[in-house]
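Preliminary data (for renewal application), zinc ion complex.
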Amino acid sequence: MRSIRHGDTGPAVEEIRSILVDLELLETAGTEFDDATQTAVRAFQQGRGLGVDGIVGTETWAALDGARWKLGARTLFHSVPTFLVGEDVRTLQERLLEMGFDTGRADGLYGPRTARAVAQFQREVGLTPDGSCGPNTMKALRRLGRKVVGGRPNWLREAEAFRQSGSSLVGKTIVIDPGHGGPDDLGVVVPDGQLRWTEADLVFDIATRLEGRLAAAGMRVHLTRGPHPTQQMTGQERAALANSLGADLLISLHLDGQETPSADGVATYHYGTGNGVTSTVGERLANLVQREVVVRTGMQDCRIHAKTWELLRLTRMPAVRVDLGYLSSPVDRERLIDPLIREQIVEAILAAVQRMYFPVEADVPTGSIDVRQLRLALASRNA
Ligand SMILES: [Zn+2]
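Predicted structure:
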């Protein structure tokens, strides 16, 4: 089509202006491409990452045309080779992202990643996972709309619920999830003479030590698996277990491993898409766990990261996964096979959980917290 620009008049301009009015970028409809229309086109182009020239060429026209679609007005699917484009696709992507499905960037293009996210959503609500968004999928989205009012409000609710649950560990339910397990899933395995070290066994050992300490602090503690499960468990099954227990927190324990022995360090993961959708309580727990473990063990700080893994996405409570060093690194391995260091890791996680409930950052420095100090700090504050 011919480019439409400043000074043009006619039905095409009228159409462009009416779309811009619908998008609330322009105040009044009309048939003239005037200064206000040009400004609105530029604003539209800027918002869509298009070249900002104030002229409606082919690309801008396609984007404007797509902007007309309201979610639910047409069936959306992954068409090849030209993806469906539109405001409805963008709205759908944003809704899915907010609910924790990874569509990638909300770019308004119905690509394979969006189709995959739709299929995942369909599977979870019991629909045929065909990856296209028609009336039934829309109905499910609308039904959930009232319960899951967007990601941010959702996480705000999570934070509020956490705050209201009070500042005591007593009676809280925590699920400790030792990663892997089962005959076919030992996680990272490193041979050592006639023996071998496995991630599954080491994290199970840490989990049982932690279980004892948390229980002593008054928490109800559940492990997701025993020492030698007959079957391996998926992230989805682990999340479902924690949900069914109505857990207040979940901490998943893993070790990392790599070909290169030089990779080492601790990293903690919380739910988040990297698009600003994040579990704020989960992020806080991740920060605390990461800090305490690094300070107490001296392992390298590989920081915290947002992930959309099943275990983090499907759990309804703040959940984190901590990778407690690289079993493949001689430096980390030496620490991890030392029961005293594993005890320090347990201390660190315990302190992080305590800090979640007692905001004592200012009173007790990281790495030094113990129950006695905590009581003193609280007593002096309440005095
Ligand atoms: Zn693992």
